[in-house]
Amino acid sequence: MLVIKVENLSKKFGDNEVLKDISAEVKKGEVVSIIGPSGSGKSTFLRCINLLEKPTAGKIFVAGQELTDPKINVTKAREKVGMVFQHFHLFPHLTVLENLTYAPMKVKKETKTVAQEKARELLLKVGLAEKADAYPNSLSGGQKQRVAIARALSMEPDLMLFDEPTSALDPEMVKEVLDVMKDLAHSGMTMAVVTHEMGFAREVADRVLFLDEGRLVESGEPIPFFENPQTERAKSFLDKIL
Amino acid sequence: MNLDFSQIVPYIPFMLEGIWVTIRFVIVAIILGFILGTLLALCKISSIRLLRAIAGSYTSIFRGTPLILQLMLFHYAVPQLTGYDITPFMSAILAFGLNSAAYVSEIIRAGIQAVDKGQTEAAKALGVPYREMMIDIILPQAMKNILPALMNEFITLTKESALVSTIGYLDLMRRSQVVGSSLFRNFEPLLFVGVIYWLMVTGLSVLGRMVERRLNVSD
Ligand SMILES: Nc1ncnc2c1ncn2[C@@H]1O[C@H](COP(=O)(O)OP(=O)(O)OP(=O)(O)O)[C@@H](O)[C@H]1O
Ligand SMILES: [Mg+2]
């Protein structure tokens, strides 16, 4: 079963065509890493999948539903797509627990008891049970990002999008976040991860998508892709970063 | 120098009554300005171009012309155009309320737009509808920027309220002039209401600082 299906997606900001005719699919339970040079359109691609950016042309389906259908309820459609940002974007005026219970209570109308119970379970999973009543500002970057992952999971999404989740972290905190993501991948979550962590892409991803100048230039399983890239562009990109 | 405050003593109750007269219209004007200003601010951040244009022009007009002119217009032009008489109280709250709305809308707009865009995106990504996002996520954070500036606006409005004396509204200022002209001594009554204005404004400032401290505690 396909969780994401993208058909001939393009996106323009004014005259600047940032995504050019991209088609891709992600199956249920698959982990896909999206890599490419800065400005190649990775974030924009990801943001199109939960309509934080509106595609200029093409179709996007998530869990069988067409997001690009003009009649769709955008807010409703986003419930099933979790997103984790580079800079966390936790709600600073809410405690960690409230960050996790807010959307389930407001959007899914869960009762406080149920939402809190689930939230504590998720916090346990990301190793932050004791921080339930702390405010985000008192956490380290790695802890913030783990809370952000738990917050996205609190909506029980079909799919998780990660936009460079470890790029804003001090090096010693990268591992704790990647470990949480690995657990998540092993639990069968469908994930699309924009990352500069080639180790993660190689080890955890089922497939790598390589974007360059808005085009999907190459895609394939990680080991063959990293050892033996088929395109010149992928080759020179890998030479630069590895 | 021959200051003689004993002469104004019989007029003190008359002048003190002006405090309430002033406060009454200032409060109504502040409420009107706040409600209208909030609506205008929502128009300014909306995605509908027409609403943005309307709110923008409104602000530009009310901030770009003298308040005393707006006051005179309401007081003298409305009866001339509509045939209805307008009381000084009505003209005063209209002019001050509508004028204040322009400033308040800018304060609120700036406060909302100063909240990190990531907050909106995070809320959207969780499927939170616009209304709930504004009320629960954005506005509470914007309040930190908004409240101090709003307090300043209220203080300005309180001071500027003395302008209504020019349309014959019997406020604090006007009363001091009435007393002055019946005593043929202006300095004492002016000084007297000057102190009252100062006390009112200082009170508001203290209140503002208390609110601010309250807000910072939650950090
Ligand atoms: N909101 C926007 N308005 C205008 N142009 C934009 C906007 N967002 C992105 N762009 C442009 O689109 C292009 C792709 O940006 P995007 O952020 O998707 O790249 P990226 O691959 O994520 O890069 P990075 O690795 O630096 O995060 C860039 O040229 C960028 O300037
Ligand atoms: Mg990016």
TrEMBL record, chain B:
Family matches, as SUPFAM superfamilies: MetI-like
One Gene Ontology cellular component annotation held by this UniProt entry: ATP-binding cassette (ABC) transporter complex
Topology of the protein relative to the lipid bilayer: Multi-pass membrane protein
Domain ABC transmembrane type-1 residues, every copy: 19-208
Principal subcellular localisation of the protein: membrane
Cross-referenced NCBIfam families: HEQRo_perm_3TM (TIGR01726)
Family statement drawn from the similarity comment of this UniProt entry: Belongs to the binding-protein-dependent transport system permease family. HisMQ subfamily.
Name assigned to this protein: Amino acid ABC transporter permease
Organism of derivation: Natronobacillus azotifigens
Organism lineage string: Bacteria, Bacillati, Bacillota, Bacilli, Bacillales
